Amino acid sequence: MVTKKVTGIVLGVFIMAEAIYLAYYFIELRKIENFTCHANFVQHYSQESYYVSISYTVRKNFGLLHITGMSDKDPKKIFNRKIPFNFQRNGDIYYMTSKKNIKFPDDNFNDKELGQYEPGFFISPGRDIYMRILPQENNNLLFIVDSIPTYVCNRSSGQS
Q1: Mean pLDDT, consecutive 10-residue segments, the chain of 160 residues?
Q2: Tell me, what DSSP letter sits at residue 45?
Q3: 19 and 50 share a domain?
């Protein structure tokens, strides 16, 4: 009788320890720490499309984003900006707030017009955005805005 009780307790402790280990492993597997990545994509609208390139560098609770793009109808219509930002993370949800919006000399895109195509986070300082960032099997990152998969960001080589 005592042996069955001890065996049950040992088995229960073993199962609990295994469950904790597996939960920890799963959480650590999904955890994204520092990363650098790059994405290229095309945004299609009724009258024109925009070729966009975006790069992220994220360290601890600070990030730097570089976004460039141009119109397919008017290739001289260019936006080229660096945006330092702070963020808070809850699991795979990132709440990002832009600190500055640095326009490069070749950026000739009107902010009001760009606001029709890009969220305010990419245009003005002090604007925020929620993004879900999910690690993919191929070590890339899937960025999701408002439950819509927006782009896949390719991690720089040598990162995990």
Answers
A1: 72 69 55 85 91 94 94 93 94 94 94 90 95 91 89 77
A2: -
A3: no
